[in-house]
Design brief:
Length: 74
């Protein structure tokens, strides 16, 4: 039995596309500041029907750093 296709949480579309990208720095803003030499990656997922964009941090070590360096949201 094939896996059920993932759907967009905004519009329900199955037209989701993803790509791994750097979080920035050097010549642009650092979107995930985890240290001077850190170069974390994002997995960006885009719904091509409604335009919803979601950013995920796939690296376990990077997520652990976030727990130490960021303030927990309540």
């Amino acid at each position: 039995m094939p896996d059920k296709a993932k759907t967009c949480r905004n519009c329900g579309s199955e037209e989701l596309y993803s790509k791994k990208v750097h979080s920035g720095g050097f010549y642009g803003p650092n979107l995930l500041p985890l240290g001077m030499l850190a170069s974390p990656m994002f997995r960006v997922e885009v719904c091509t029907d409604c335009g919803l964009v979601e950013w995920f941090v796939p690296g376990v070590a990077d997520r652990k750093k976030i727990r130490k360096l960021f303030k927990r949201s309540n």
